[in-house]
Amino acid sequence: MSLRRWICDVIVQRNVRFQGAVVGRFLATEAKNEDIDITTADEQPIYSDEPQYQEKLTKQRNKSRLSPRDRNVLMGKPPYEQPIEWYHNTVRYKKRMLGRYGFEGNEEPVGFAWPTPEEVKILQEYERVAFPISLQERWKELEEKKRIKAEKIKAREDKIAEKLSKVDQWIVELNARVAKKEAEMEAARLRKERMVEEIRQHFGFRISPHDERFKTMLEQKEKEERKKKKEAKKKAKEEKLKSMIQKMNQEQETDSTKPVE
């Protein structure tokens, strides 16, 4: 198609649309200016009780286009007027409809919702097995458990309060232990430095700690130190034993000098 032909078609289409719009407006203006005789209008609206007409009217009113079931649920009515599925005839479903929609939920008498004598016996047997004690006894058990729990909480709180009261004492003891440990470490360091200095004086020159002679002499010095410490400990134990024996002898002498009553 040539460009010239295409331009002509566009112009023709525009002219046709313009003419249609002008004609439509003209006819609308003529209709507005036309006089209407209201005496010829029907006084009664067209209305029919025929089922087909009513069904058609109901469909026209349903602008939501929902299914009958969903529309009934939306309007607060039972979803189905007649049973459709097999479970719609069960007692469980009818009980649900009765509880949700009241007497409009089903056409059965209300008495169908009550349990049968067999169901009552089953429920009684279940309660007897599941709840063997009475409500009063169960209440007493709960109260006893509550009391025991409160006592445990009180005992734990008292224990925590007692420990909190000893925090200051524990801090002092901890600081004392830390100071003692630091003093022992410092004493060990000084003792090792002294031993190293004695070894160097023994050789008469500065010897490397990695030298085998230095290691041998250091091990010998450590053995001597352990031996001295052991002897000092043994001597202190003997002195303590002697003092205990002397104390016992003095007590016996004191008892022997007392006059017999």
From TrEMBL:
What top-level branch of life does the organism fall under? Answer: Eukaryota
Question: Which parts of this chain are annotated as the region Disordered?
Answer: 55-74, 219-261
Q: Which InterPro entries has this protein been placed in?
A: Ribosomal_mL64 (IPR018472), Ribosomal_mL64_sf (IPR043035)
Localisation: Mitochondrion; Nucleus
List, alphabetically, the GO terms of the cellular component aspect.
mitochondrion; nucleus; ribonucleoprotein complex; ribosome
The answer to keyword Cell cycle applying to this record is yes
Ranges of Basic residues composition bias in the record = 226-235
- Broad class of the protein's primary localization: mitochondrion
**Keyword vocabulary terms for this entry:** Cell cycle, Coiled coil, Mitochondrion, Nucleus, Ribonucleoprotein, Ribosomal protein
Could you list the residue ranges that cross the membrane?
Answer: none
Tell me the protein family, please. Answer: Belongs to the mitochondrion-specific ribosomal protein mL64 family.
Q: PANTHER family from the xrefs?
A: GROWTH ARREST AND DNA DAMAGE-INDUCIBLE PROTEINS-INTERACTING PROTEIN 1 GADD45GIP1, LARGE RIBOSOMAL SUBUNIT PROTEIN ML64
What does this protein do, in the record's words? Acts as a negative regulator of G1 to S cell cycle phase progression by inhibiting cyclin-dependent kinases. Inhibitory effects are additive with GADD45 proteins but also occur in the absence of GADD45 proteins. Acts as a repressor of the orphan nuclear receptor NR4A1 by inhibiting AB domain-mediated transcriptional activity. May be involved in the hormone-mediated regulation of NR4A1 transcriptional activity. May play a role in mitochondrial protein synthesis.
The protein in question is named Large ribosomal subunit protein mL64
